[in-house]
Design goal:
Blueprint lengths: L29 E2 L3 E7 L5 E11 L3 E6 L10 E6 L18 E9 L8 E7 L17
Length: 141
């Protein structure tokens, strides 16, 4: 029987300079209470809506609370949209000024009987390598 020869092991040394401890965030989180709306399709394909209130926002995520309980499973894609009259707030990252933002649900906190609302943590589906630039473009002839 032929004997198996162990392949050479290659070792790769990685540079730890890009490592961030878990206590540091990729973007600053800001406490902001603004009305917003979620839109998603349930498991049957029916479009659902919910009015929510933001609690904090960052360039890549938002935490919202919903007074009425909603059934949105983890990792469901939702459209997040701030109400039109509050989008231009200086307290917001530029990402939020564009209107609807595709997002994924990555944490669900259940509401309680004593009145604590249901909470949803959303990861915004934006390119983290690209800074959002909001420009006022005009058509030219």
């Amino acid at each position: 029987m032929p004997t198996a020869i162990a392949p050479e092991l290659k070792r790769v040394q990685t540079d730890a300079s890009g490592f961030r401890p878990s206590s540091e965030r990729a973007a600053e989180r800001r406490n902001v209470e603004l009305p917003a709306r979620l839109t998603w399709k349930d498991q049957r394909g029916t479009t659902r809506f919910a009015s929510v209130m933001t609690r904090n926002v960052s360039e890549y995520g938002v935490y919202v609370e919903c007074q009425s309980g909603v059934s949105i499973p983890l990792y469901r894609l939702v459209q997040f949209q701030l109400e039109r009259d509050v989008r231009e707030s200086d307290a917001l990252p530029a990402t939020f000024r564009q209107g609807r933002i595709l997002s994924a649900v990555y944490r669900v906190s259940r509401g309680t009987a004593d009145g604590t609302p249901q909470g949803l943590a959303l990861r915004l589906m934006v390119d983290p390598g690209r800074n959002a630039v909001v420009e006022d473009t005009r058509a030219t002839a």
